[in-house]
């Protein structure tokens, strides 16, 4: 067996080579581990919204296909955004027309103002997000015509994806009688 000195390497160069090889092995191992972990926020990592009063509206897990509704009367766009965060966290893929939405929302409070076309510029992000969730089949949204009238919003002054109902509380009762579970 040859020693480092008999090969012409001095001990300092030999130690440097050992160090470089060790760093290279460590670097390659770390790179391999990083590549094997899913990206944060990717499809394998569920996005979880911050806890809030609205968290109980949309269930955290699948319940075997039970239909759910939420009697919504929120007062700020941020509260509705939190609800949409929760729905998006549960949406694994767009739903087919045959599949029930994650939740049916009945809007019959101050939030109807967010969806008036005259306020679209102000609430564009919220309205577009609701439209996308409705298009994906994640939510079914109905809006109370009584509240719309009280707030000076005509039938043709809300986006088409909103299903208009004469009276929000009556729609809530209809969903309940059809077997929807309140959230």
Task: Explain what this protein looks like in three dimensions.
By secondary structure, the chain is an alpha/beta fold. It folds into 2 domains: 1-37; 53-182, 3-Layer(aba) Sandwich (Hypothetical Protein Ychn, Chain: A), CATH 3.40.1260. It is 39% helix and 11% strand. The protein is built from 5 helices and 5 strands. The chain has helices spanning 11-36, 77-90, 120-135, 145-150, 168-177, and strands spanning 68-72, 103-107, 139-144, 163-165, 181-182. A 5-stranded parallel β-sheet has the order 4-3-2-1-5. Strand 2 (103-107), helix 3 and strand 3 (139-144) form a beta-alpha-beta unit. It is elongated and about 95 Å long. Mean pLDDT is 79; it is low at 39-63.
Rg from alpha-carbon coordinates: 28 Å
Task: Assign the CATH superfamily of the largest domain.
Answer: DsrEFH-like
Could you name the ranges where pLDDT drops below 50 across 5 or more consecutive residues? 39-63
The profile of the biggest β sheet is:
5 strands, parallel
Supply the CATH class of the largest domain. Alpha Beta
Proportion of residues in β-strands: 5-15%
Write down how many β-strands occur, each being a DSSP E stretch of 2 or more residues. Answer: 5
How many structural domains are formed by the residues? 2
> How much is the average pLDDT?
79
How far is it from the N-terminal to the C-terminal residue, by CA?
77 Å
SS field, number of helical segments? 5
How are the strands of the largest sheet arranged?
4-3-2-1-5
**Oligomer status:** single chain
């Amino acid at each position: 067996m040859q020693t480092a000195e008999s090969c012409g390497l001095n001990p300092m160069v030999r130690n440097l080579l050992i160090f470089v090889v060790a760093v290279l092995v460590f670097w390659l191992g770390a790179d391999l581990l990083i590549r094997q972990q899913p990206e944060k926020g990717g499809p394998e990592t569920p996005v979880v919204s911050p806890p809030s009063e609205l968290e109980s509206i949309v269930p955290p897990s699948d319940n075997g296909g039970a239909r759910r509704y939420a009697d919504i009367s929120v007062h700020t766009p941020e509260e509705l955004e939190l609800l949409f965060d929760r729905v998006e966290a549960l949406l694994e893929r767009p739903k087919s027309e045959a599949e029930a939405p994650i939740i049916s929302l009945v809007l019959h409070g101050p939030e109807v103002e967010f969806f008036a076309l005259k306020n679209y510029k102000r609430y564009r992000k919220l309205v577009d997000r609701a439209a996308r969730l409705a298009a994906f089949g994640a939510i079914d949204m109905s809006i109370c015509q009584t509240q719309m009238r009280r707030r000076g919003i005509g039938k043709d002054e809300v986006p088409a994806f909103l299903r208009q109902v004469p009276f929000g509380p009556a729609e809530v009762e209809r969903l309940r009688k059809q077997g929807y579970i309140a959230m």
